[in-house]
Design a protein that fits this description.
59% of the residues lie in helices and 0% in strands. It is mainly α.
Length: 115
């Protein structure tokens, strides 16, 4: 999945007025979180994520982690506490599914739940 595909998909299911730059920043933060927490990369090594490329690192069927995260962040800034809690629970489940997948395949990162 590409960044452009994620932004287009989110806009189609949850229309919003936020600038793409905000959404892209959130995606970059998530990419770094995935690299650190799931793949065991160190934050001080900025080479672990090349965010200049359009392609994101998590492939289908686990790529829903991206759009569920953006929906949760939209609910955080524009929604109600209840809608954020629900959206964040959906994101956490997607994130944990991916973490379990990496762990089953012999991944080295720590399996931690995002905050």
């Amino acid at each position: 999945m590409t960044k452009t595909e994620v932004l287009t998909f989110v806009q189609s299911i949850k229309p919003h007025e936020l600038e793409d730059a905000v959404m892209l920043r959130w995606l970059e933060e998530l990419e770094k979180k995935i690299a650190c927490e799931i793949h065991g990369k160190f934050m001080r090594d900025e080479r672990f994520v090349s965010f200049a490329q359009d392609q994101l690192s998590v492939a289908a069927p686990y790529d829903k982690v991206y759009w569920t995260y953006l929906i949760a962040m939209l609910e955080l800034v524009k929604g109600t506490p209840e809608s954020y809690e629900f959206a964040n629970a959906v994101f956490r489940e997607a994130y944990q599914d991916y973490a379990r997948h990496v762990q089953r395949r012999g991944g080295f990162g720590k399996r931690r739940t995002p905050r």
